[in-house]
Design brief:
By secondary structure, the protein is an alpha/beta fold. It is 44% helix and 12% strand. It folds into two domains: 195 residues, no CATH class; 320 residues, Alkaline Phosphatase, subunit A (3-Layer(aba) Sandwich), CATH 3.40.720. Bound molecules: zinc ion (ZN).
Length: 542
């Protein structure tokens, strides 16, 4: 009896071998690369592969229920379903050596932002391109030439129910392991991402209604110029202001005595959108839902009768649909000015000058979102700032194992830091000429790894290094400001940018019930808290 069953099964497999090969090729190709990921332990990797294998068996078993044109549609559907998640997971494993889970996928959905384009441009190398090509061509070959759409004789319906039962069992187990199949994860993550956006839209009235409690503790007649510069991908470890061996920030160093230079701040996220969503709102690790429950900094200033400006030099075109929380917030400003990314950052200077020239506006809150030091570094500085070209003064820990191209990338990054120094110090200079109460707050949305801790440039989602989150935070205050208010300054305060809204409120004399002085970096009440980057404890990062 046993023997008979085995012979039947072998015959069955032989009869349906091309269909089996096709479905396993499409659904089990990527899991074969799981072992290259370094963010999971072996036990978890084996579980992920086994889980994917059972999922593949299940997908195959369902194909047995179809025949003819439905079978073909089913086979095409499986390919479409797996294609995008497969490329994304493959690319992350190939480049970051990281297996993506849950919200790690969000960066993919944030289309229209600089990050996704940079991801494609920088990370989709020839190696990964070739793998994707092979994956696609073999799939198409099997699909169009080899598969048979006839129905297969099924003597035992239990063959379908059995893997289904195993899969259900594993699903419960995987939930306790906080893991699931990457394809399932990709689509549930997409749903969660859109749901987060929907929550933000649905609570707009609630946020507006809570604004009557905001007030500002300043006379209306005083000229106020409050400027926040949001930098991009700047690792403070590459600024000579913070001790970098190359002179990358000579102009900021010239005015160092006029600045408060905080040297222990980190971002809460290694992506622009994740970081700024918290910077601009009351959301933080403890209260993640506050991004939609409470008003953003722009809404607070709008309610205070400030003219709010947002000068944007990132790839967020004015007519694009708004795919992200922080972009939605930027559009709430009374004047949103966009440079469409194609220009160098110094273009913001003339725009800022035009705003500052409007002396009749006494209450001004201006956010400047720079392109800064984003990938590809070379594109974000003019030729005249190409100062670092040699390799002798590179002092990366990994220097010995770097290729010429990688050393060139370090040079390009440092040149972009030099250019950023020019842009940011020029903004300081422009605001310095203003009368009345004025401050400039500068920080970068997150840092960047540029072959310092590991042989890698950019930011990853799971394999974070300290360089990817260590950011500069600088504050300049006008003389009138200093007469009006004395800040509590301790440059070494361990700070996380997720609390930045409290610092801005504090700097701006605003009174609001949700303001928490223990989260302001310039308050005497400041309190140290554990810091998390992409949910990971900062102190454990390499
Ligand atoms: Zn960014």
């Amino acid at each position: 009896m046993q023997m008979k069953n085995l012979t039947w099964l072998l015959n069955f497999v032989k009869q349906d071998k091309w269909n089996i090969l096709y479905l396993f090729w499409v659904t089990f190709f990527v899991p074969l690369f799981f072992f290259q990921s370094t963010n999971l332990d072996n036990y978890k990797i084996i579980f992920q592969i086994f889980y994917s294998f059972v999922f593949s068996i299940q997908i195959y078993c369902f194909s047995l229920l179809t025949n003819g044109v439905f079978k073909r549609i089913y086979f095409i559907f499986v390919f479409i379903l797996f294609f995008l998640p497969s490329i994304v997971v493959l690319a992350a494993i190939h480049i970051d050596k990281a297996f993506l889970e849950d919200t790690d996928f969000w960066f993919v959905f944030q289309t229209n932002t600089d990050e996704s384009f940079a991801f494609l441009g920088n990370y989709l190398s020839w190696g990964i391109g070739l793998i994707v090509l092979i994956y696609t061509l073999v799939s198409f070959y099997l699909l169009t030439i080899k598969i048979s759409t006839g129905s297969v004789m099924l003597r035992r319906k239990s063959i379908i129910l059995l893997p289904a039962a195993v899969f259900m069992l594993l699903s419960g187990f995987s939930y306790s392991m906080e893991a699931s199949n990457y394809v399932v994860d990709f689509y549930t993550s997409f749903y969660k991402y859109n749901y987060a956006l929907k929550l933000y839209d649905d609570h707009a009235d609630e946020r507006l209604n809570s604004l009557h409690t905001v007030s500002v503790n300043l006379p209306d007649t005083v000229q106020k110029t409050f400027v926040v510069i949001i930098g991009e991908s700047l690792d403070r470890g590459h600024m000579s202001l913070y001790g970098y061996n190359r002179k990358t920030t000579p102009l900021l160093e010239k005015i160092e005595k006029e600045l408060i230079v905080f040297d222990n701040a980190v971002s809460s996220d290694t992506q622009t959108s994740g970081s700024l969503k918290k910077v601009l709102t009351f959301a933080n690790t403890e209260f993640p839902d506050n991004y939609y429950l409470k008003p953003s900094i722009i809404e607070l200033f709008n309610a205070l009768n400030f003219k709010t400006y947002w000068i944007d030099n990132q790839l967020n075109k004015v007519n694009d649909p708004v795919p992200d929380i922080y972009i939605k917030i930027s559009r709430l400003s009374k004047a949103y000015i966009n440079l469409n990314f194609s220009q160098q950052d110094e273009s913001v200077l003339q725009l800022l000058k035009n705003i500052l020239d409007k002396k009749h506006e006494t209450n001004r809150f201006i956010v400047i979102h720079l392109m800064g030091n984003h990938l590809p570094y070379k594109a974000h500085y003019p030729k005249s700032f190409e100062k670092f070209t040699g390799f002798d003064d590179i002092n990366s820990r990994e220097k010995k194992s770097l290729t010429t191209d990688q050393k060139k990338t370090i040079n390009e990054y440092d040149n972009s830091v030099l250019y950023n120094d020019f842009v940011v110090s020029s903004i300081f200079k422009l605001v310095k000429a203003e009368k009345g109460l004025a401050y400039v707050l500068y920080f970068s949305d997150h840092g960047e790894e540029v072959f310092d801790e590991k042989i890698y440039s950019g930011r990853s989602y799971d394999n974070i290094t300290a360089d990817m989150c260590q950011v500069p935070v600088l504050i300049w205050l006008s003389d009138d400001y200093k007469k009006k208010k004395t800040l509590s300054v301790d440059k070494n305060r361990p700070y996380c940018l997720e609390n930045m809204i409290h610092t801005i409120i504090d700097l701006s004399f605003i009174k609001y019930p949700d303001y928490d002085s223990t989260r302001s970096i310039v308050s005497k009440d400041f309190r140290e808290r554990p810091r998390f980057v992409n949910g990971k404890d900062y102190t454990t990062l390499p």
